[in-house]
Amino acid sequence: MRLVQLNVHPLKSGAVRPVPSATVLARGLEDDRSWMLVDADGRLVSAREAHATLHVVADTPATDPSVTGALRLRAPGLADLDLDVPDGPPVDVRLFSLHLHAVPAPEADGWLAEALGRSDLRLVWCHDPTERRLQPGFSAEGDHTAFADAFPVTIASLASLRRLNDWILERALEAGEEPPEPLPVERFRANLVVDGDEPFAEDQWEAVTVGGVRFRVAKPTSRCVMTTIDAHTLTTAKEPIRTLARHRLLGGKTVFAVSMVPESGGRISVGDEVRADVLSRPVAPGR
């Protein structure tokens, strides 16, 4: 297998930022999901609620060497906004059911109001990823991340995506619907994208080594309505959730790709060899 794509998401729910190489830290890829939007009560606001967040391009020096500050925000019709690392006191924020702390960047308030049409949005920065513990039963002592949904890194397979797109086409034809365009892998917002194995071989992975960096596989990645949003048109549809519910249901949740935790650090690059250790007793979703 080979690593064919690397993606960093400096702003949670912001535009996917493809990079040729990335530094792997204990918390995940450098700068991945280090920033997020919250409402006036400190609760996460993602593209689930504010679809236009997908059109906000957030870059850091890790995704664009021309960025000289901590973060640069871009959106259609607006001037770029350059931000330094915020230095105010941390505030309480909510990431789903998790109570965390983050540092606000109030300089972004007006820009966000124009970009997203909401005056209640606040940008916050994860100043201490070690505060964020991971899901018990699927993590080890000391595992941590920033504002990712659940685990530091996700890895998706193009072979699996091709199979999923075949299933989606079959389902559409069964229902007498217009044949859809294949879904792009970006719809799943994975950090690592690989190719060269069998479809859904990742169900059997226990660990993955990319170049010289090793990752422990935690669990299959559950999927929500976020995957039904077209990042270009911002419209929503039934897929891929409708088809995943038929073929990729595990514990009552639709799954695609797998979540991982770094066991070592280092630099990885597109083109790196990917080697997987296989479980002796895999538990695979129905398909």
Describe the model.
With 287 residues, the chain is mostly beta strands. It has a domain at 34-130. Helices cover 11% and strands 33% of the residues. The chain has helices at 109-116, 158-174, 241-247, and strands at 2-8, 17-18, 21-25, 28-29, 35-38, 44-45, 57-59, 71-74, 81-83, 91-95, 98-104, 122-125, 153-157, 192-195, 205-210, 213-222, 249-250, 253-262, 266-269, 274-278. A hairpin with a 2-residue loop joins β15 and β16. α2 (158-174) crosses α3. The longest helix is centred in the middle third of the chain and has 17 residues, at 158-174.
Brief synopsis:
This protein is mainly beta and 287 residues long.
Give me the secondary-structure topology:
Elements: E1 2-8, E2 17-18, E3 21-25, E4 28-29, E5 35-38, E6 44-45, E7 57-59, E8 71-74, E9 81-83, E10 91-95, E11 98-104, H1 109-116, E12 122-125, E13 153-157, H2 158-174, E14 192-195, E15 205-210, E16 213-222, H3 241-247, E17 249-250, E18 253-262, E19 266-269, E20 274-278
Parallel strand pairs: 13-14
Antiparallel strand pairs: 1-2, 1-14, 3-4, 3-19, 5-6, 5-12, 7-8, 8-9, 10-11, 11-12, 13-18, 15-16, 15-20, 16-18, 17-18
Helix pairs in contact: 2-3
